[in-house]
Amino acid sequence: MTGRADAVRVDRCICRSTLFEVLLPRAKAHGWDLADLMRETGCGAQCGLCRPYLRRMLQTGETVFHELLTPEISL
Ligand code: FES
Questions:
Q1: Is the per-residue pLDDT at 12 higher than 60?
Q2: Is the CB of 50 within 6 Å of ligand 1?
Q3: Domain count of the chain?
Q4: Ligand 1 atom at minimal distance to the Cα of residue 48
Q5: Are 56 and 64 contacting, i.e. CB atoms less than 8 angstroms apart?
Q6: Residue 72 placed within a domain
Q7: With a 6 A CB cut-off, is 46 part of the ligand 1 pocket?
Q8: Would you say the CB of residue 23 lies under 6 angstroms from ligand 1?
Q9: Domain that holds residue 24
Q10: Within-domain flag for 27
Q11: pTM of the model
């Protein structure tokens, strides 16, 4: 086994080129939920692939993910 744990790394909204580690402090400072974050930053509001990661980030404080989360169809 060689480096498979690092094969997956999700740490940003690609559509908005914004790292989760930048988004989390903003969300905490303003008390944003996912809908607020999407409205204020545009992250999660385009292709939506980062949305499940944003949701988990808000729940757990994680900003780097090493697993693929299932895309959400809607909020
Ligand atoms: S990757 Fe975040 S909206 Fe597309």
A1: yes
A2: yes
A3: 1
A4: 3
A5: no
A6: no
A7: yes
A8: no
A9: 16-60
A10: yes
A11: 0.89
Q: Mind listing the pLDDT tens digit for each residue in 40-57? A: 999 999 999 999 999 999
Q: Give a yes or no: residue 54 inside a domain.
A: yes
What are the beta bridge partners of residue 12?
19
CA 54 to ligand 1: nearest atom:
2
Q: Indicate left, alpha or beta for 31 from its phi (over 0: left) and psi (-120 to 50: alpha).
A: left
> Of residues 63 and 3, which shows the higher confidence score?
63
Tokens of 2: 């060689």
* Per-residue pLDDT band at 70 (split at 50, 70, 90): confident
Q: Is residue 8 part of a domain?
A: no
Mutate to test the pocket of ligand 1, among 46, 54, 56, 72 (most ligand atoms within 8 A of CB): 46
Q: What is the DSSP letter of 41?
A: H
Q: Is the CB of 15 under 6 A from ligand 1?
A: yes
CA–CA dist 29, 48 (Å, integer): 23
